[in-house]
């Protein structure tokens, strides 16, 4: 078996193979070749597993993104996708061979981090990935959508500034691209959406050309600073919000208030509701906001631990010795992390460890989405000192919870 990179000429083979691996058939592209997920694929980052007689049996792809780290640091990252093996060749080492080759390629590009959306959670931990951001939905019945009267002196007393304009998706692509790019630069865990994704309609709404209404929020100066893309399944039915992008919580609330005031609907469903947003508390009936479908979203895999830990921003000073195992790559390292004034320094050390953990668990705590103490209590991470978990919690804490909206 050979694992080889693809070329432009391999696109049809690559697309057919990954669809066959999942038992599906490709959608029909638009006349311009857009409107399908593979319109944004990067052939030089895709891999094919080919048998000795030339038959393709597996695929693994990657996109070139930027990831926002805590501290609003932007770093290049590999977005792993289109991973599949034909049912006839599973349990034969094909996936492991592709993952090993892909991680080597990511390192060769100088990227210290790879991310993915896991189709099956049991698969990717063994390759060193850990769930780093989480997602959920919030459903609000229309008849319970009234907002509370703010208490005197509360921040909600401040009058809302700005306006909300209703547009069609086909008429506001440039606005969406600009607002999303502004948003993702300040949101830990967010991925960039390169222009070719928008121009080719490669992805889920509102990137795709699927018909949608879009509520666009503008600030007092007329600058667009938020949007909500949505569709109604039928009159009197459910209004589903694909995503709400806002530069701050106030803009998000203004968009939510607009959608919750929509006539002739029974409920509003906010997909990818951001962690920590106060909307449920802003409703007159706290129980009206019903969270559901909580789960993992972005998974992270560190390939250069000192590089990753010195790249992100930090919000507390301290020291921590991490003993990290990487079983898939057969690597092991012990590192002293020292943080002073928001800057981290990470070097190999022979000091006794504070925490012992797998590289997948380090991926889970890296963006601040999971507290180290949670993994200690779960039995994933071993704390060698009574105060080690608490010190790790304080060190890895972030000012804003990581959140990712992008599907790839």
UniProtKB/TrEMBL annotation:
Q: Does the keyword Electron transport apply?
A: no
Keyword list, A-Z: Acyltransferase, Transferase
Q: Which Pfam families does its entry note? A: Acetyltransf_17 (PF17668), Acetyltransf_9 (PF13527), SCP2_2 (PF13530)
Record InterPro entries = Acetyltransf_17, Acetyltransferase_Eis, Acyl_CoA_acyltransferase, Eis_dom, GNAT_dom, NAcTrfase_Eis, SCP2_sterol-bd_dom_sf
Q: In the UniProt record, does the keyword Acyltransferase occur?
A: yes
Residues given in the record as acetyl-CoA binding sites: 83-85, 91-96, 119-120
Q: Which residues form the active site?
A: 124, 408
Q: Where is the N-acetyltransferase domain?
A: 1-153
> Which PANTHER family does the record cross-reference, listed alphabetically?
N-ACETYLTRANSFERASE EIS
Q: Summarize the subunit comment.
A: Homohexamer; trimer of dimers.
Question: What is the similarity comment for this entry?
Answer: Belongs to the acetyltransferase Eis family.
Protein name, entry field: GNAT family N-acetyltransferase
* Organism of origin: Amycolatopsis samaneae
